[in-house]
Specification:
Blueprint lengths: L5 H7 L4 H8 L3 H9 L7 H11 L3 H5 L3
């Protein structure tokens, strides 16, 4: 089941949306939509970029409660 901890992990790492956007090469607008739940189906490529930027697994960010 899809579950998104992106915002809490980003804040835990002390990163702004803009910093994560630069590091992951995913637009800050799209990241914002993922964080607030208005987008819930990111591609595997986007999840990989975000997970690498946050040094976490895809499972930890997107599927683990």
């Amino acid at each position: 089941m899809y579950y998104n901890k992106l915002k809490s992990i980003r804040k835990e790492k002390g990163m702004t949306l803009e910093e994560l956007s630069r590091k992951s090469k995913v637009s800050s607008g799209y990241l914002c939509h993922l964080e607030n739940g208005s987008r819930t189906n990111p591609s595997i490529e986007v999840m990989e970029k975000i997970s690498k930027a946050l040094n976490k697994t895809i499972f930890e960010i997107f599927f683990n409660k």
